[in-house]
Every structure is written in structure tokens, then in C-alpha cells.
Amino acid sequence: MNPARKNYVLLISSIAALGGLLFGFDTAVISGTTPFIKPYFSLDDFWLGWTVSSLLFGCIIGVISAGKPGDIFGRKKTLMAAAFLFIVSAAGSALASSLVVFIIYRIIGGLGVGIASMLSPMYISEISPAAQRGRLVSFNQLAIVIGILLAFVSNALLVDTGENNWRWMLAVMGMPALLFLVSLFFAPESPRWLVQKGFSEQALVILGKINGSSAAGEELKTIEASIAEEKDSGSFGEVFSPSMRPVLLIGVFLCVFSQITGINSIMYYAPVIFQSIGAGAGNAVFQTAIIGGGNLIFTFVAIALVDRLGRKPLLIGGVTGMIVSLTSIAAAFYMKRTEGYILLVLILMYIASFSASVGAVTWVIVSEIFPNKLRSKAMSVSIVSLWLSNFALILVFPMMLNRLGGVTSFLFFDVMCVLLLLFVLIKLPETKGKSLEELESMLVRKKL
Questions:
Q1: Which of 134, 140, 376, 443 qualifies as a cystine partner to 307, CB 3.0-4.6 A?
Q2: pLDDT digits (tens, 9 = 90+) for 290-341
Q3: What range does the domain containing 37 cover?
Q4: Are residues 233 and 85 in the same domain?
Q5: pLDDT tens track for 180-201
Q6: Helical packing angle, 99-127 and 358-368, nearest 10°
Q7: CA distance 276 to 47
Q8: Is the pTM of this model over 0.85?
Q9: Which residues of 66-78 are buried (b: 16+ CB within 10 A; e: fewer)?
């Protein structure tokens, strides 16, 4: 690939992936505040769960509402709206003096997270050449884990800033949100969206910058042919039609099991987990930052391998590692061997396995398996299922941990990983190296 074109695609993918960074930052920053907002707002286990998961409630609404404006106004403008919501949430939640106000602003932030979680990978998928699409969409997951790490590090740096430390932890999110908003002014619109709206000449210019002038013409014809077969913008009835059910099952199953295998229970409640075995608040926040570092490192592994090794082999290897790690964590709780850094090391093994596989590959597959005219609607169904499962789990996890204990909680995640591995082995097709139009023909027009 021509270096200039490669750099251009990398630049605009990185800009879009800032939505993922904010997604990661906003969802993870709450973990460092939990030891401090719990006494400040006098929260019991239920209300702690609701306060932490309130952002996820907003995510569900954001995903549901993102598809329509994304189709009408374009991916770029809708992502700019998400950036604005992040800024409002950062300021409002940091200044909140009551639990109701705090939760309202966290829900507003969730709206931004929901929009970004759907449109950022969709945008990257639509502007990426087929051979680099897996790697480029994985940038979104890389940005998510960078956002998570930045939130954890920021929390660790601000933990000793006094009684308002949790306010500063939340306020700093405004800086990357502003960067995202400004950067989007320099990004082009999705060429596939432009063709859908009749702006083929503008799409050709963008495709030329991405694929080169000669290949751009062929790519434009392929997109136009695909869209010409689509009589309308598609409906949710078509999303749930018999021909779509097999591929929708893949998207929904991967999204749900990417959550109920335990990743965000650890990410959001790591300080609570470490405090449950006797760690102090400051040390618990520090150990959580180490987890964020491991998450980042092994996301690079996924990016390096997703287009070389393929989606399915990565998932098989990673989920197997998650099973081994979760079994070990449950055994450590059972034998009461969680002292020192034993639990931290075992959790890092789990994080490494997840980050190198499920964390990145889920977003890649969900962004590429659905047909053009149904992509936004089908992705919204899949991602809503992700946030619903995440919301439910995060809401109940404090009660799970305190009432059922570490053994039962982590064995539950272990069983979910086994089910995910069986699904990948039996039902998941390989999508590596195929254009979006080729995947549409393979997965939808022909039944799996």
C-alpha cells in the first residue's frame, strides 16, 4: 500500500478511534471513584451497583438512538454529537452534589459511549481496505484499552488529592473529549454513506485517497452495485428475517458473551475486589492501573495477529486462556491463596487472554458481518445486547461478590467462557481478508 494512502487511512482511523478512547475512559474511570463515592453518597451494595451501571443504562439508549442519525446525518456528525455529550458528562458528574444529579450526568455520558461504541468501529470498517480492515477496526479496541489505562493511571495519580479526588478523576475526561470533537473536523465522511446518499463524486475522492485512483473506481462500482440492490434503507423486520438470523445470532452471541465472561466486572470493580481481600484504597487503585497496562499490551497482540492469523484462531486461543485463568482465580479464592500479588497475577493472565482475542475480535466481526443497508440497525441490535448484558452484570456484581463469594462468582464466568468457546468452534465462520460486499454474499444471501 502506498505510504501516503496508508498514513491517510491510519490518520482518519485514529481520529475515529478516539471515540473508543472516550468509551474506555468513561466506563473505567468510575472504578477509581468507588472507594470514595460509596461513603460520600452512603451507598449500599445495590446502590453502588446502580451508580456504577447507570452509565451503561445510557449506553443502551445511545446505541438504540445512534443508528437513525448515523444514517441521516452521517457517521462523522453523529460522532461529533457524542463528543459533546462526553464533555457535558465530565463537567456535570464532577460537580454533582447529590446522587440523582451524579447519575443523570453519568447517563448522559453513557449516551456518548453508546453512540461511539456503534459508530466508531462502523466508520473505520467502512473506510478501510479489506486487507487492513481487521487491524484498523482493532484500533478502536486499542483506543478503548488506552482509555481504560488512562483512566486507571489518572485515578492513581489523583487518589491522594484530598476529599474531592473523585471529582478530579471524573473532570479530566473533558480533555480527550474536546480533542475528539476538534479532530473530527479534519476527518472525511464514510464513502459508503456518501454513495447511499447520492454523493458518489465525493465518495470517489475519498476512495482515491484510501485505495489509489485506479482501485477507487472499481471500489466505487462495487459499492454502487451493492447499494443499487437495496431498495430501501432496510428495516428491523429485515434484521430479524430468516436469512439474517444466523448472522445476527453471531453478532448478538459474541457481544453478550464478551461481557458475561467477566471482563467489566473486573475492570469496573477491581478496587472493590482487591479491597475485599484486604488491600487499602490507594493500593487497590494502583493495582487496578497495572491491570489497565496489561490490557493495553495484549491488545497490541490482537492487532498484530487479527489479519495474519484470522479471527477464529485468535478467539479459540484467547478463550481457552480465559478458561484456565478463571479456573485458577476461583481455586485461589477457594484455597484462600489471594494474599500478596497472587490474585493480581491471575487476573492479569485473564486480562491478557481477553485482550488478545475477544476484546478486539468481537468489534471487528460485528462491524463487518452485516450487509450495507442493515449494518447500522443490525449493529445496534448486537451492541444493545452487549450493553444490556453488561448493565445487568455490573448492577448485580457487588451483591454476587459479597453474597456468593469469589469462588462462585468466578466459576460462573468460567462456565460462560466454556459456552463461548463451543460457539466459536461450531458456529463462527472466518471473515479474514474478505470485502464487506463479499461477506454480505457469503453470510446473508447464502445461509450459514
A1: 134
A2: 887 888 888 888 878 888 888 889 999 999 999 999 999 889 888 877 666 7
A3: 3-187+229-443
A4: yes
A5: 999 999 999 988 889 888 888 8
A6: 60
A7: 18
A8: no
A9: bbebbbeebbbeb
